[in-house]
Amino acid sequence: MPSQKFTEYLLNKYADDFKAATTHPFLEQAGKGVIGPKSLRAWLKQDYLYAYVGYIKFASSVLSHLHIPTPLSTPSPNTSKAISVLTFSLANVKRETDFFVSTAKAHGLDVFSPDANDGAEGGLLGEYNEITRAYVDFLHAVGGVGAVEEGLVLLWAMEIAYLTAWRNAKSLRPETLTSADPSSLSQTQQALLKFVDNWTSDEFVEFVTDCADIVDGAGIEIGSALAERCETVFKRTLWLEQRFWPSV
């Protein structure tokens, strides 16, 4: 009987926590197209900061820690795939943050306009709210001093949670919103359609699958000290994801 995949082990063991991280009133309102522009803009700003300030440095750090063999030897298939996944993630997060900003601005949700007051500005953390700052610090810590395997688990955990959350939101989209003439929708609804479709695209699904594959190919043995550290990373990621969604 084949051994259980490490990603399946984590999802099965922490199914309740994963559900809590991927279902939330914010997602429900976003899926139904009834969320207010202020709430959406505030979340977009925090997600942008997480991605641009935290994710880019994190993915770069994990990539730099991969064991790259000498030019005369061939990297393992999993290392080769990890290189491809991480380099794609870096290019993609830059594309995604540009998409955030341009789409938001086109629909009156400019996250960095002077009147985009989301309640997080001017405090000790500047434009970050407390959870965003904690998430960015966690990304930098795992990327900087964690084992490569811990970094790969964190990458997959973030991406599978994000995909699942927005799939859940999209499943609540009413047919009236899907079939409506865009000109009849509010600017916020038009932006949501673009955002949610992008965050549930086939390309993103393929990327998340690749993230899972490199975790499962990393040789993490369930019950080992390394597996316990990776499990801690997964649990912490879910804890942060649960709290990243804003109150609505």
List the helices and strands and how they pair.
Elements (H helix, E strand, L loop, with lengths): L5 H8 L1 H8 L2 H8 L4 H29 L11 H30 L23 H16 L2 H23 L4 H4 L8 H12 L3 H15 L8 H20 L4
Helix pairs in contact: 2-11, 3-7, 4-5, 4-6, 4-7, 5-10, 6-11, 7-10, 7-11
Q: Tell me, what is the CATH class?
A: Mainly Alpha
Q: Provide the number of structural domains.
A: 1
- Helix content percent band: 55-70%
What would you call the shape?
globular
Largest sheet: none
CATH hierarchy: architecture:
Up-down Bundle
Beta-strand fraction estimate: under 5%
Uncertain regions: pLDDT < 50 for 5+ in a row?
none
Total of helices: 11
N/C terminus separation? 47 Å
Q: How many beta-strand runs? A: 0
At the fourth level of CATH, the homologous superfamily is: Heme oxygenase-like
InterPro entries: Haem_Oase-like_multi-hlx (IPR016084), Polyketide-peptide_reg (IPR053261)
Protein name: Thiaminase-2/PQQC domain-containing protein
